[in-house]
Amino acid sequence: MTSLNNQSRFKRRLASLAAALALSFALPAGTSLAAPQKGAAAEAPIWVVDPSPVNWLWITWNTMEELVRVDKDGKQEMGLAESYKWIDPKMVEFKLRKNVVFQDGEKFNAQVFRKSFDEVQRWDNPHPPGAFLNFAKGTKLDVIDDHTVRFTFPETDSAAMMKFRGMHVGSSKFWKELGFVDKKTGKAEGHW
Questions:
Q1: Are the C-beta atoms of 76 and 68 separated by less than 8 Å?
Q2: Chain Cα centroid distance, residue 90
Q3: Is 16 within the bounds of a domain?
Q4: In terms of Cα–Cα distance, which of 96, 118, 117 is closest to 107?
Q5: Residue 134 forms part of a structural domain
Q6: 116 falls within a domain
Q7: In 3-state terms, what secondary structure has residue 149?
Q8: What is the CATH number of the domain that holds 122?
């Protein structure tokens, strides 16, 4: 019975995802996916519209990485981190994966990770689900070597590993040229 319920729940989720994806693509007025008519412009822009307040998750999870991830069973697994160890209740050290390359060709290392941490840490509310995913403002990041970083928290943080799961890491080029900051307001909040 449990297996049947799981299959049914999976089918419902799959149908929801398919519907959400179908709704995610909208064309501007006058644009068609049909082959262009003779003499018509061969290329027309296609606009992607995001009707869901949580579609940012699909975008970031499919374009960025995190130190740790959660597998399909809800168990933590390594992402950009190769391993980690708690030095004491307020300090955790991560060994970063070697030979990771971003799509733009930049090699991943501790300095690139630091850029992502610094960018996200400067926001008032970097996570749409809420400030509970923020690291405390006094959180310190030390780069130990090219593939080791150490976090020191101002106080114990039982949700730290969950927060690392939600801290997206982008290349230096991403943060320099794109980022999440709205050019009009100069803020990232609400601009995912």
A1: yes
A2: 25
A3: no
A4: 96
A5: yes
A6: yes
A7: strand
A8: 3.90.76.10
